[in-house]
Design brief:
2 domains; Rossmann fold; N-(1-d-carboxylethyl)-l-norvaline Dehydrogenase, domain 2; alpha/beta; binds nicotinamide-adenine-dinucleotide
Length: about 400
C-alpha cells in the first residue's frame, strides 16, 4: 500500500518507520530539505542499534529503509491511498496543505492529521470531500508506543473510519476510538495527574520529591508527576494544559498552574534544559522525599480520585467506551491499571466520598463529582460488572 507522510520531524519520521515496517511504500515529504536528511540519518542510527541488539536482521533493516522515499515535492504523493500529516501545529498551515493535496490525490485517498490539539472537524472543513478526513493520533515515540487514537470528525464517513482503523491495526498498533473533543482520550484524562500534583505542591501539602515518591511507590505509576513533566518538557506540558483549558471554554477543572507557567517562562523546561523541577546537572543530588506512609497515601488517593473522575466524565460524555478509555491510559501513558477498573476495585462509593470531601473542603467546581459516578453509586453499578464479582481480581 502507498502511504504519504507530511512532515519529517519527530512524529512524521516515527510514523514513516511504523508504516515502512508494515511493508508500506512510504513517501515522506517535508518543506525543509535538512529535515529529510536528519530523518533519514536518524532512521539509519535506529536501525544500526536494533541490528546490534539482534532485534532486526540487517536484511530486514535495509528493506525497511528502502520502503521510505524522502521527497521534496508534495505532488509526488498523488498516488497515495492514505496520507498522514504531521507538520507544525498551526491550523492555517495544515488546512492549506490539505486543500492543496485534494487538487491532485485520487477521490478515495484518505486524508488524516496527527494533530494533538486541533479539532478534526475544523481541519475536515477545509477539504472539498470532508468525509474522507480523519484524526489518527500517534504517541511519541511512534514506533514504540502501541496506542493510536482514531478520531472521526462529524463529517467522516463510516467507510473511512473503518478503513483507517483497519490500516493502523494492520501496522501492529492498538487502536481506540475517540470522539472529536479536546485532548481526545489521553491528553484529557491525564490532566489531573499533573494538575492535582501541582495543586498539592502549591498548597504546601507535600514537596515535589514526596509527591513523586508517593505516586511511584504507593500508586504504582512508573514516573512521578514532576519527573514526567520534566521528561515531557514544562513548555510542552504547560501548552497542552492551557490548550485543553481554553478548548473546554475555561472549565476550572483544567486550569493551569502558575508554578508550571513560571517554570516554562524561566526556561526550566526539564531534562532537555538541564533543569526543571529537578536539577539534572552532573554533580546535583536528588532531594529526599518525606517517606510518610499516611501522607503518601493521601496524595495518591487525591490524585487517583481526580483521574478516575476525569475518566468517568469522559465516559459520561461518550468520548470513548470504558474499555477504550482504560486501554488508552494503560498503553498511551503506561498507567498501572485502567482508571475505570481501578474505580471498581476501590469501590464507586469510595471514589464519590473522596471527591465529595474535596468539594466540601474547597467549594470549587474543579472537585465536582461526575454525574456518572453519582448515578452508579445510586444504582449499585460498576464499570465492569463481571470482573468485580470475581473476588480474586
Ligand atoms: N511531539 C509529540 O510528542 C507529538 C505527539 C503526538 C502528536 N503530535 C503532533 O504531531 C504534529 C507534528 O509534531 P512534531 O513534534 O513531529 O513536530 P516537529 O517540529 O518535530 O516536525 C514538524 C515538521 O513539519 C515540517 N513542516 C512544517 N510545515 C510544513 C509544511 N507546510 N509542509 C511540509 N512539512 C512542513 C517541519 O519542517 C518539521 O520537519 C503536530 O501536529 C503535533 O501536535 C506531536
Amino acid at each position: 500500500m502507498k502511504v504519504g507522510i507530511i512532515g519529517a520531524g519527530t512524529m512524521g519520521s516515527g510514523i514513516a518507520q511504523v508504516a515502512a515496517s508494515a511493508n508500506c511504500q512510504v513517501l515522506l515529504f517535508d518543506t525543509q530539505p535538512e529535515a529529510l536528511v536528519k530523518s533519514q540519518q536518524k532512521l539509519a542510527k535506529i536501525m544500526n542499534r536494533l541490528i546490534e541488539k539482534g532485534r532486526i536482521t540487517p536484511m530486514a533493516a535495509s528493506t525497511l529503509q528502502a520502503n521510505i522515499e524522502y521527497v521534496n515535492s508534495l505532488e509526488t504523493l498523488a498516488d497515495s491511498e492514505l496520507i498522514i500529516e504531521a507538520i507544525v501545529e498551526d491550523p492555517a498551515v495544515k488546512k492549506k496543505v490539505f486543500s492543496t493535496l485534494e487538487s491532485f490525490v485520487s477521490t478515495d485517498c484518505i486524508l488524516a492529521s496527527n494533530t494533538s490539539s486541533l479539532s478534526i472537524a475544523s481541519l475536515a472543513a477545509a477539504c472539498q470531500q470532508p468525509e474522507r478526513f480523519i484524526g489518527i493520533h500517534f504517541f511519541n515515540p511512534a514506533p514504540l508506543m502501541k496506542l493510536v487514537e482514531i478520531i472521526p470528525a462529524v463529517q467522516t464517513s463510516n467507510t473511512v473510519k473503518n478503513k483507517a482503523r483497519a490500516i493502523i491495526v494492520g501496522w501492529g498498533k492498538l487502536t481506540v476510538l475517540a470522539k472529536d473533543t479536546p485532548g481526545f482520550i489521553v491528553n484529557r484524562v491525564a490532566r489531573p495527574f499533573y494538575g492535582e500534583a501541582l495543586r498539592i505542591y502549591d498548597e504546601g501539602i507535600a514537596d515535589i520529591a514526596t509527591i513523586d515518591w508517593a505516586m511511584k511507590t504507593i500508586g504504582g505509576f512508573r514516573m512521578g508527576p514532576f519527573e514526567l513533566m520534566d521528561f515531557i518538557g514544562n513548555d510542552i506540558n504547560y501548552t497542552v494544559t492551557e490548550t485543553v483549558f481554553k478548548a473546554f471554554f475555561y472549565d476550572p477543572r483544567y486550569r493551569p498552574s502558575f508554578t508550571q507557567k513560571r517554570m516554562a517562562e524561566a526556561g526550566y523546561l526539564g531534562r532537555k534544559s538541564g533543569r526543571g523541577y529537578y536539577d539534572y546537572s552532573e554533580d546535583s543530588k536528588k532531594p529526599n522525599p518525606v517517606e510518610d506512609q499516611r501522607l503518601g497515601q493521601a496524595i495518591v488517593d487525591r490524585i487517583v480520585a481526580m483521574l478516575i473522575n476525569e475518566a468517568a466524565d469522559a465516559l459520561h460524555y461518550r468520548v470513548a467506551s470504558a474499555v477504550d478509555i482504560d486501554t488508552a491510559m494503560a498503553k498511551g501513558v503506561n498507567y498501572p491499571k485502567g482508571l475505570l477498573a481501578w474505580a471498581d476495585k476501590m469501590g464507586i462509593c469510595t471514589c464519590v466520598e473522596r471527591l465529595d470531601a474535596l468539594f466540601e473542603e474547597y467549594h470549587e467546581t474543579r472537585y465536582r463529582c461526575s454525574p456518572l459516578l453519582r448515578k452508579m453509586l445510586k444504582n449499585g453499578a460498576t464499570f465492569y460488572p463481571e470482573k468485580v464479582s470475581n473476588k480474586n481480581n
